[in-house]
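Morning. Coffee machine broken again, so started the prediction first thing and wrote up yesterday's gels while waiting. Chain of 368 residues, entered below exactly as on the submission form.
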Amino acid sequence: MTVRILALVGDAFGARGGIARYNRDLFTALASAGAEILVLPRLGDTAGIALPAGVRQRPAILGRLRFSLVSLWTAWRYRPVDVVFCGHVYMAPLAAWLARLLGARYWLQAHGAEVWRDRRAVVRRAIEAADQVTTVSRGTRKSLLGWVDLAPERVRVLPNTVDARFTPGPPSTALRERLQLGPGPVLLAVGRLAASERYKGHELVFAALPALRARFPGIVHAVAGEGDDRARLEARASELAGEAGAVRFLGYVPDEDLPDLYRLADLFVMPSSEEGFGIVYLEAAACGLRVIGGAGGGSSDAVPDERVGELVDPGDVDCLVEAVTRLLRQGPAEAAAIEPYRRPHFVAAAQLLLARLLAQPRRMTGAT
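Came back before lunch.
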């Protein structure tokens, strides 16, 4: 019998960002086991995109009230539903209510900052109603269990995965010349430049550049990504970096070009203080880059030990300068450290979690 999953998400197919990528990876893994998944996104355009067999995605639904109404109508018409999947905590109250209405199991996914910041009572009750919660990291799991009343065995870690495109390889001379990065070394950061994500640590890197350029005169910090905070960050780079051209803002880089971007860099540096996990750390390390992350949040899962890189105090410029100096003198990241995050392991873990959830009895319709 086909398992039917109704997925409420912020974004998935046809959208950018780490959470969208996580959802795509998860739905692809579950569909490969025979699940039928209907995705209701807030954002994302699937025009021209071939979705995995078993996955359908409705057009983006803007506005909270409209999303709630469309979700209710779609859920009722999609019956029977075996699992209501909620891809973001802010949708948890709606997902919990739909699961009760449909008598379906309720699977909630938690990533990071949304768990630490949104602690309203209605959200807490919706989280506690979940039959299964998955988090991207041990840090997110620990934070979640610290403020909600959930049995620990109901909260599982399902970390991000990195696909086979991200492997070591020769750097693209043409790309380096096109980006005009000079002799280097090149420090790289990849991520959204959003005002809501100022915890990424960009300004700490800017502040470290004068001392780093005294040691490495050609060093450049390349920042890939777009967002509503870019103009402010550009101004801060001019103030803190101490020399024109020390920071290069590359704008949005398509996913298919990321492996080449990682391969031309010498070190990945993003000392984030609140990262839920940090898929970019994995991608960089999988391409051979040593990585510097920030101590805090879930970064310790993506940067587990010295085989990958180091975690630094996200408020300590001197510590960052010494870490960059040290890691630039080391060899590439070790591939064995990334192996547990490769796609086959993720697929197997996701399918096992679905099987465990389905082994639980269905809710009585309307039950809490």
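DSSP finds 14 helices and 13 strands in the chain. Going to sketch it on the whiteboard this afternoon.
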